[in-house]
Description:
By secondary structure, the protein is of the alpha/beta class. The chain has 15 helices and 15 strands. It is elongated, with a radius of gyration of 25 Å.
Amino acid sequence: MPPEAAISVRRPSYGRQELKGVRMKICVIGLGYVGLPTAAMFAANGHYVVGVDVCDRILKALGRGETFICEPGLGEAVRWAVSEGRLIAREDPEPADAYIICVPTPINPDHSADLSYIERAVRSILPCVRKGNMVILESTSPPGTTRDLVCGILGGSGLTPGTDLYVAYCPERVLPGRILTELVHNSRVIGGINSESAIKARTLYSCFVRGEMYITDSVTAEMCKLVENTYRDVNIALAAELAMICEKLGINAWEVIRYANKHPRVNLHQPGPGVGGHCIAVDPWFIVQKQPETARMIGLARRINDSMPRYVLERIKALLKNISGGRKVCVLGVTYKPDVDDTRESPVIRLISMLKAEGGYSVVAVDRHADYEGSRGRDLYEAVKGCHLLLLAVNHREFERVDFARIRERMAYPCVLDTRNFWRAEEVEAAGLSYHLLGWGKQSDEEGPDGGVPVPAARGFGGAEDR
Length: 467
């Protein structure tokens, strides 16, 4: 059993500590990528948990002890908690000791935060809250949401937040694929609307959190969560811009990044076809929303990353400009990152939509992790039949070793575009395919003998073979 799956189906051993205080009834509202693992961890550590969601499919699955989320260890944890009666599914909240809100906070078309899910979740607990209850928001939110929106609604219960109710903001810091591990071992920031609220929340989470827990006010905690992902977004935007510059200069951005990162105080991230997920692709906009005139660099970075699907589209169009008639593109990977099933804010799906909107392009996607237009059950070697371009969009492990000779036999035009620096150029080209890498301006303007694929130019001393 891998470390992430070490919650025993008989006994909850992973992340288990001696329970501090009495067992509590906890109502977790929102059973997505954060809410369900959080509910499972509280259940595994002695508490009685009511999981609330509006999705009937999720509630029915949880009632059977099943989960729709592909996450190491989570299935076992949920199965154990349900079988032991520690975790139950409900459509509506019940009276409890603590309410933890883990609902989505999507962005509106104008990039402002859609707080309607939080508002509905808080209103749903108004008939249930009692004096001495805790209300904790985990949903990523613009600064001031807990203090202003959550407390403002809770005031309608007749109870005073901070006096009758303990209210805090406690964001998660987890990575898909390692959620259970990181829920336990990562540090957490606990932001209370007052010190009493923060201390109460810290005590609650201490039943399974082994990382450090830092107490602050709720607005600081909200900004902390946002800036953690904004830092990464700005860094990725720098890498994306570097990739575009290096293409024009005829050099390899990946090589530049590799050697620049040898500096002890430099940590450049990597470029790609865009940024996805419900954190990095969304959170910076919440800062821009609060201070649009001041958050200029943050907004620019967000726009650069949002522009990358369009940039990759233009690369594809240039590579296939000499193909007459319809052009077929095979896309490998549709999730927002490798080896997960999460397609939220996926830049690859945006790219596919753009290709289709161009006209003259047909697209077939392959991804066993996610079912996007049949991608999950599709065989790679069948998908590439008659294709003019193979696009490596997500570096899933199963794409690391593929038979390029077999791919070449089935393609109508031998063109490969790697957006992740995942394949070795020499191996791809040895099979008779023309290899192109996002961020590597190695191609000359000459046309190849087979009708338009550019001839590789001479490589630098540290080309793709030196990685």
